[in-house]
Amino acid sequence: MDILKQRINEEGIVLNNRVLKVDSFLNHQIDPKLFVAIGKEIAARFKDAGIERIVTIEASGIAIALQAAIEMDVPLVFARKKKSILMTDDVYHSVVYSYTKEENYDVTISKRFLPAGEKVLIIDDFLASGEAAMGLAKLVESAGDTVEGIAIVIEKSFQPGRERLERAGYNVQSLVRIKAFEDNHCVFMED
Ligand code: G4P
Ligand code: NA
Ligand code: NA
């Protein structure tokens, strides 16, 4: 997605050849027109998949997933992150390990908002280790739904996320794939 690569080149800040900060248009300030375009691109990639519901995770996934949900005209639900939960039987949950915080957290979705038997599209902003996406996929499957795909805005292809998800059988669609960081600049993979 060329307009996204352009914004990353113009405004992204790579820290220690490790983390890409895109706070000026994606993770803090949000560019509404760019988000509309992102939603349209995700919808186009899954137009024949029969998607019935979108699942994302707070916080940064929500605004992205909303645009796709409007385009695809399907309901959207976001998973909540909690340090740990008292087990109740009214939520589905999954445990995710955060490499940045070096701790586990629980992600939960109320059973009311994840009916069984649906085709679900998972959406998130970044794909790095794939922990969050894998946790969401397991959660969705525990509800008796099918994960038809995982849509990501920015993939760090040199981290193991995509490989993990593909090995587990998921269709991963990333709008931009970063092959490497070199001298604190992004090297993109060819489309
Ligand atoms: P994972 O999501 O792939 O499992 O990796 P990790 O635990 O390391 O990620 C922690 C958080 O950092 C996640 O957001 C993830 O999306 C984000 N992240 C990973 N790599 C990058 C990067 O290079 N740049 C930016 N900007 N974010 C990255 P989160 O904690 O769930 O936060 P939120 O933004 O959804 O609130
Ligand atoms: Na994030
Ligand atoms: Na995220």
UniProtKB/TrEMBL annotation:
Belongs to the purine/pyrimidine phosphoribosyltransferase family. Xpt subfamily. The keyword Glycosyltransferase applies. Converts the preformed base xanthine, a product of nucleic acid breakdown, to xanthosine 5'-monophosphate (XMP), so it can be reused for RNA or DNA synthesis. Pfam families: Pribosyltran (PF00156). It is found in: Cytoplasm. InterPro entries: PRTase-like, PRTase_dom, Pur/Pyrimidine_PRTase, Xanthine_PRibTrfase. One of its GO terms (molecular function) is xanthine phosphoribosyltransferase activity. It catalyses: XMP + diphosphate = xanthine + 5-phospho-alpha-D-ribose 1-diphosphate. 5-phospho-alpha-D-ribose 1-diphosphate binds at A128, S129, G130, E131, A132. The keyword Cytoplasm applies. Keywords: Cytoplasm, Glycosyltransferase, Purine salvage, Transferase. This is Xanthine phosphoribosyltransferase. Its EC number is 2.4.2.22. The gene is xpt. Its main location: cytoplasm. Homodimer. Xanthine binds at L20, N27, K156. PANTHER family: HYPOXANTHINE/GUANINE PHOSPHORIBOSYLTRANSFERASE, XANTHINE PHOSPHORIBOSYLTRANSFERASE. Residues 45-157 form the Phosphoribosyltransferase domain. Pathway: Purine metabolism; XMP biosynthesis via salvage pathway; XMP from xanthine: step 1/1.
